[in-house]
Write a structure and sequence with these properties.
Number of domains: 1
Structural class: alpha+beta
CATH class: Alpha Beta
Radius of gyration: 17 Å
Strand order of the largest sheet: 3-4-5-6-7-8-9
Distance between the termini: 28 Å
Helix content: 10-25%
CATH topology: Penicillin V Acylase, Chain A
Order of helices and strands: EEEEEEHHEEEEHHHEEE
């Protein structure tokens, strides 16, 4: 997961709104989102190379997402960052306890941002960003730096989500997918993460479509006031490791009601 927006208690009909893009190498094997056979309460995609997942939710309402923290020559990891989210979704610890325990061993991993949530709290933590942060009511954005870092695509996308929330009738999956599908590159205000100006520009759109790396799927999750979940995913198939056509996608939708323990 490389671009994530989420809104907590900002819409009259939805207590949670999530819109996200997963960016990855086209050649990396991936399983689209579905309920897992070995953990039937978990709805998420799966990384078939290292295991783990980037975004998911459970039937009892626990959810989370993980993104990489962009850095040059990162520390050699001792484990897959996707397992951090998998372990949370398949476990039973509350969000705050899970993050507290993770923080004690977080230096074993390459840079990451992790969001985990339960009935009570949404908690953000980065092993490149200090103490955990509770995310209360509001709108948040996350890419490959710290939470709400003012990268152009993050600022633009977050502003668009705020606009949609200001007109509740406009808050629809289609409008969120349109925001996630923005392929406009930018020259101004690009971050300097050490990868060079040209690559920063190529990575600047919300929807990345480069030669061997880009947006593999877009996901919208809506949880209404009756705890009904709509999970909609669009995957963009590629062949032989080549860029997919953003206009061609496979769509899958799941709906269920959260049953709290």
């Amino acid at each position: 997961m490389c671009l994530l927006f989420f809104a907590v208690d900002q819409h009259p009909g939805y207590r949670l709104v999530i819109a996200a893009n997963r960016d990855e190498y086209y050649r990396r094997p991936t399983q689209s989102a579905g309920f897992w056979t070995d953990a039937p309460h978990v709805l998420a995609g799966r990384d078939l190379k290292q295991g783990g997942t980037w975004l998911g939710i459970t039937r009892n309402g626990r959810w989370g997402a993980v993104t990489n923290y962009r850095e040059v020559n990162p520390k050699q990891p001792h484990g897959s960052r996707g397992h951090l989210l998998q372990d949370y979704l398949t476990g039973d610890e509350n969000a705050e306890t899970y993050i507290e325990k993770l923080a004690r061993r977080a230096d074993r991993y390459a840079g990451f941002n992790l969001i985990v949530a339960d009935d009570s709290l949404v908690v953000y933590y980065s092993n490149r960003g200090g103490d955990p942060q509770i995310c209360g009511e509001g709108v948040y954005g996350l890419s490959n730096h710290l939470l709400d870092s003012p990268w152009p695509k993050l600022t633009e996308g977050k502003n668009r989500v705020v606009e949609l929330l200001a007109h509740p009738e406009d808050l629809s999956p289609e409008n969120l997918f349109l925001m996630l599908g923005n392929r406009r590159m930018t020259e101004a205000g690009l971050p300097d993460t050490g990868v060079g100006e040209e690559l920063e520009r190529l990575l600047s759109p919300a929807f990345i479509n480069n030669d061997d790396f880009g947006t593999r799927c877009s996901t919208v999750i809506l949880i209404d006031r009756n705890s009904t979940v709509r999970f909609i995913e669009r995957t963009y198939p590629s062949s032989a490791g080549r860029p997919p056509s953003p206009e061609k996608f496979r769509a899958a939708s799941h709906r269920f009601t959260i049953h709290r323990l």
